[in-house]
Amino acid sequence: MKFIDEYRDPDLIRGLLKRIEETLRNIGRPVSVMEVCGTHTMAIGRFGLRNLLPPELCLVSGPGCPVCVTAIEDVDRALYLAGRERVLFATFGDMLRVPGTKGATLQKLRAAGADIRVVLSSLDVLALAKGNGAREVVFMGIGFETTAPTTASLILRARERKLDNLTIFSVHKVIPPAMKALVEDPELNIDGFLCPGHVSTIIGSGPYDFLPEKAGASAVITGFEPADILEGILMILRQIETGKRKVEIQYTRAVNPEGNPRATAIMEKVFEPGPARWRGLGDIAGSGLLIREPYGTLDAARRFTFPEMTSEEIRGCSCGAILRGAKQPPQCPLFRIRCNPRNPLGPCMVSSEGTCAAYYRYGGETA
Amino acid sequence: MCIGFPGKVLTIEDNFAVIDVNGVRREACLDLVDEEVAIGDYVLCHAGYAIHRMDETVALEKLEFLRELIKNEIY
């Protein structure tokens, strides 16, 4: 398939791997690179890149899986909304098995009779709201800057059609504040970041300027095919070798430096930045996307009053440390034996792009 | 969750495109795409929306650049 197959060409991969080895040798010390995005984590596992790369190159997974970083309090709120009478709750499939307090999930709630629907696009929700006029349709909007504009577009379309039985429960988050929090963590020593490709399609390269400027780290916006990822790594290594830290775009076919102004304008029209709680990273100011006042009637957080809830983290689960890059999945005592894809205890094992799921499925313990 | 895939635009109606993704037809909303999209263009799609018009020239230049550098071992 065009725009994909070319980036899986074995000769290209072999050539890139050779360059990576040589550049690492010139640098003469181990280098650690964080892949921020969950889709990168999956691609790295799927194509076995950890086993192909030299051991001096340490790939650390970051907090870029939206389902995994959703705070347990927000999962509990989603469960509360989905369990209410007359509510038809819609969200993306990844959310269904994410455990809240005491192992409750949307999936279990659905088995007990709640009307919970999986959608592939926010546009499906418009049809659900139109076709179920007597129901309160609640859409849980989740995802980073790639997905947030699609929820914003849903909100604009819902307003245009004057749908009054639809609300949005937004747990959307933005990536740069989380990366800022990560580089401030003294536990974590990252030489360079593979920045998320499709988030950057929307936001461009500017928001990462603080990485070279403030944290002395390299930042390369990278695509998702094997040749993309290896070239992204090589670009980071070249920056280290030459001592010139900067933000670069490897994924030029999908990312312009200025991003997608139309999508960001729609996102900014509907959402305003606010505080958000991240699993593993805690509260990060300005990292959440709250629905602006003019669209307040479409905001589930305004329409419904949440009761006092006491949320409890999953006992023994290391997802928090894994999302910060402070631990690798095999270092979690639950990994593989008690926590596996058939019986996932933590969100990093639940989500198809969670770090634990990637390690379980594709190995990588040797890394 | 940030999965995106390229598709070739077959038809456009009412700001929705029908795209061909490796032989499978899907619908993509054009509300968010920043540039004018025409039939035959490739767009990057995410969750039912086109989010970027892909530039074939840029993509080909990149591949050519990589092959050149690897061939000449100057990367």
In short:
By secondary structure, chain A is α/β, with parallel strands linked by helices. In chain A, 40% of the residues lie in helices and 18% in strands. Chain B has a single domain, classed as SH3 type barrels.
Notes on the structure:
The complex is a heterodimer of chains A (367) and B (75). Chain A is an alpha/beta fold and 367 residues long. Chain A has a single domain, classed as Rossmann fold (3-Layer(aba) Sandwich). In chain A, 40% of the residues lie in helices and 18% in strands. Chain A has a five-stranded parallel β-sheet with strand order 2-1-7-8-9. A four-stranded parallel β-sheet of chain A has the order 4-3-5-6, with helices on both faces. In chain A, helix 7 runs parallel beside helix 8 (148-160). Chain B is α+β, with helices and mostly antiparallel strands. Chain B has one domain: SH3 type barrels (Roll). Chain B contains one helix and five strands; from the N terminus they run βββββα. Chain B has one helix spanning 56-72; strands spanning 5-13, 16-21, 24-29, 42-46, 49-54. A five-stranded antiparallel β-sheet of chain B has the order 3-2-1-4-5. The radius of gyration of chain B is 15 Å and the shape is elongated. Chain B starts with a strand and ends with a helix. The mean pLDDT of chain B is 88. Chain A binds chain B through residues 1-4, 6-7, 11-12, 15-16, 18-19, 37-39, 64-67, 92, 94, 120-124, 142-144, 146-147, 149-150, 153, 157, 196-199, 201-202, 227, 231, 234, 238, 252-255, 260-263, 266, 351, 353, and chain B through 1-6, 8, 21-22, 29, 31-34, 42, 44, 46-49, 51-52, 54-55, 58-59, 62-63, 66-67, 69-71, 75.
